[in-house]
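Is this the right way to post structure tokens for a design question? Let me know if I should format differently. Anyway, here goes:
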């Protein structure tokens, strides 16, 4: 093989590697976004539960978000 051919192979391998990594990162971003949605739902449920407790709901200045 010539030097030019070796460089083309290296470039193609690098491009394939980067594309694979980008796909993995995109999947991870989607997973993290879903985890944030789930966390927000849990936080909202806990907040609503706390708001309904007598010692929290009777306090002055307690605002519900």
């Amino acid at each position: 093989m010539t030097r030019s051919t070796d460089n083309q192979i290296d470039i193609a391998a690098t491009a394939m590697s980067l594309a694979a990594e980008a796909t993995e990162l995109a999947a991870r971003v989607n997973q993290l976004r879903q985890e944030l949605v789930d966390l927000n739902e849990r936080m909202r449920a806990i907040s609503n539960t706390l708001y309904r407790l007598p010692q929290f709901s009777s306090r002055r200045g307690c605002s519900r978000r």
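Format looks fine. Someone answered above. Worth noting: The chain has a mean pLDDT of 87. The CA atoms of residues 29 and 35 lie 10 Å apart.
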